[in-house]
Design brief:
0% of the residues lie in helices and 54% in strands. A hairpin with a 4-residue loop joins β7 and β8 (77-82). The chain has strands at 3-7, 10-12, 18-25, 33-40, 44-51, 57-59, 67-72, 77-82, 89-99, 109-110, 114-118. The chain is mainly beta. It contains no helices and eleven strands. The mean pLDDT is 93. The termini are far apart. The strands form two sheets. Strands 2, 4, 5, 6, 9, 10 and 11 form a seven-stranded mixed sheet that branches.
Length: 120
Amino acid sequence: QVQLVESGGGSVQPGGSLRLSCAASGYSSSSGCMAWFRPYLGNEREGVAGICSEGIRTYAEAVKGRFTISRDNSKNTVYLQMNGRKPGGTATYYCAAGGFGLALATYSMWGQGTQVTVSS
């Protein structure tokens, strides 16, 4: 059974940094793609960053240059380094596995999410 556990959420001031982690069990981070998503327009989710087995990284335009996705295959963990956070209230960031790039519909394995608040 695949389990994805996110951590690292919290509060950060605008312009600040935060690093999220997603630890996978029952799934090898080196075998496919893993990605981070966040809420978008109500019940939808938008892809933030993804990393695939070949090391190919994909970013949403809104976070390019500020966010970095990486992984440690020895720990089966994917990270999302978020720098230069913009004000935006509170959002839950979700880790997903087994899909492709930032294509939401291709991901079937999801974590419970970790909450990030950007506020002064």
